Amino acid sequence: MKFSDYIKFLNSELNRNNIEDDSQILEWIENKNKSIKTNIKRSNLSELNNWFYDERIGNIKHRSGNFFSILGIEISSDNKIHEQPIIKQPEIGFLGIIVKEIDNIFYFLMQAKIEPGNINKVQISPTLQATKSNFQQIHKGSKPKYFEYFKNAKPKNILFDTLQSEQGNKFLKKRNRNIVVKVTNDIEVLDNYKWMSLRQIKHLMKYDNYVNMDTRTVISNIQYNFFENKFTQLEKETIKNKVRDNKFAKSMIAENGFYIDLIEVKNDMNNIKMLDNTKIRKKKLHELKAWQISDNIIYNKIKKGFQVIFCDIEIEGREVNSWGQPLLKPAGIELIAFLVKDINGIKHFLCKYTKEPGIFDTVEIGPTLHVLEEEPSLTDYVSNYTYNKIHEGENIIKYVLLSEEGGRFYHEENRNIILEADNELKINKICEKYKWLTLGQINFLINNDSYVNIQARNLTALISMGD
Q1: CB 360 within 8 Å of CB 349
Q2: Where is the dTDP-4-dehydro-6-deoxy-alpha-D-glucopyranose 2,3-dehydratase domain (predicted)?
């Protein structure tokens, strides 16, 4: 990233100059919630237009062969076998934000968007949030708004462009293109869109379910670290002076004092990939032993887990105003947490090498803890310590309830938590699958495509260089 663009991102996060003030943004969101007409109701698969169960291959699919399908998989690893439904969506979609510069500050063109699975209707979304099937207009509806700005973007105007994974326990090898494009000319601001500063977006992240998952993953890609940003010493000092008192900013721009080197992290991940014995086999949904398949629901008969439901959907102002589709309904609220600790005077985050059956390349860096709140699987010292500290409610730095992507998940919420480790944490009890990384190291890995999972990316998006 050029120094001038870095400063515009940083100014957007630190400066309180806004095109519209915070109260106007909140009022706009509230008005959209009241005015946009929606009707989401449960249905049966047999009653959905264009969706059916293909007996031959055992999948739920769209008649066009596009969008996504739901199939069964069998995962075998270390003599254990697990079966489940999973979403197959091989298309790479766009998660894109347009930015423009005013007075050396980047402003982000954000969308008030309703997805069928949103618990509260409107959430703040990227400028463009579209699957390949959407922008190819397989649904026979209109083309997504602002699509041409991304399709025709010149390389010099692309500020970052990465391929990132989605939820690896519910998607099979799904990735999306996280991209930010700057414009130099005035563009029309359509009805459901507003310019916001990065400070405003991060402020909205403090409210439960106001900022959607896709916005958070795109924001996490902003490249603040100094690893690849080859700035002069004077430029670095300019940045340091802007964020002098912020401990998280210090963790982002640190150039030394690391607990471990990134080479060790990459070596660890390569070893996990090389030695992994996990095998994934596709199965017909009706052959999944623990799962009950019916016309109105798919669920696990033995233990609590997610369900597949079917919905008829009407949302005013979408590319098509009505459609039907399957949605995944969660088992409950999940806890997603990062434990942080000062090491060598720099805040480090306790990351976990996380394997999930659907991720693109075996293992990614995840947060310290990711469990179901009501029935947590606490398998080691770190997960027990972190879970207990969350419930003690002390040393909490960030705590907010946020949604998963409402286009595929129905009313799915997570508690997103960042908390400080205390002196009770025994460093010598932390096993090898956990590593202490600075915020800058995580940020660097995010910019290297599919190294950091969606949960960890979205937690880092909560952190402001201006906190």
Answers
A1: no
A2: 23-221, 269-462
pLDDT digits (tens, 9 = 90+) for 92-113: 999 999 999 999 999 999 999 9
The three state secondary structure string of 29-50 is: HHHHHHHCCEEEEECCHHHCCC
The per-type count for the chain, helices as H runs and strands as E runs, is: 12, 25
d(CA 215, CA 367): 19
Secondary structure of residue 274 in the 3-state scheme:
helix
Per DSSP bridges, beta strands 171-172 and 80-88 are: parallel
d(CA 3, CA 240): 13
How do strand 175-183 and strand 93-102 relate by DSSP bridges?
A: parallel
Low-confidence ranges of the chain (pLDDT < 70): 139-140
Q: What's the confidence (pLDDT) of residue 176?
A: 95
Kind of pairing between the strands at 38-42 and 307-315: antiparallel
Report pLDDT digits (tens) over 132-146.
877 777 766 788 999
CB atoms within 10 A of CB 80: 8
In angstroms, the CA 217 to CA 358 distance is 18
How many domains, in total, are found in the chain? Answer: 1
β-pairing, 93-102 vs 128-130, is antiparallel
- For residue 2, give the 3-state DSSP assignment: coil
> How is residue 318 annotated by DSSP?
S
